[in-house]
Amino acid sequence: MGTSYEFECPACGYTAAVSGDDDAGMICNTTTIVCRTCRKLYDATIILRSFDSPEHQEIPIRCPKSKKHAVERWKHPGPCPKCGAQMNRGEACCDWD
Questions:
Q1: Residue 88 near residue 6, CB atoms below 8 Å
Q2: Whole-number Å distance between alpha carbons of 86 and 69
């Protein structure tokens, strides 16, 4: 089961509900990414599994808005994508599977 947390930047007020690192559920694995083009944090699916097969599909990380955007992995504690200040992790806001 994966968990998302509410991350907030104390300097500019930007917020994002993401895992903050690698995470896994029953059918997928995710990683948190920063899109340098959008200047936002997202959780990106990196592995999909099927209940019908032991095999899995690896998926390259990319921005959900465009394949052409510049992205990289992001891990807490990490910088705010808007202003560069360190993001604070708040309460768990969502469990997913």
A1: no
A2: 23
pLDDT in tens, the chain (97 residues): 899 999 999 999 999 999 999 999 888 999 999 999 999 999 999 999 887 777 889 999 999 999 999 999 999 999 999 999 999 999 998 888 7
Q: Which amino acid is at 38?
A: C
DSSP 30: E
Q: How far apart are CA 48 and CA 42, in angstroms?
A: 17
Contact status, residue 34 vs residue 40, Cβ threshold 8 Å: yes
The whole-model pTM stands at: 0.91
CB atoms within 10 A of CB 23: 19
Name the DSSP class of 86.
B
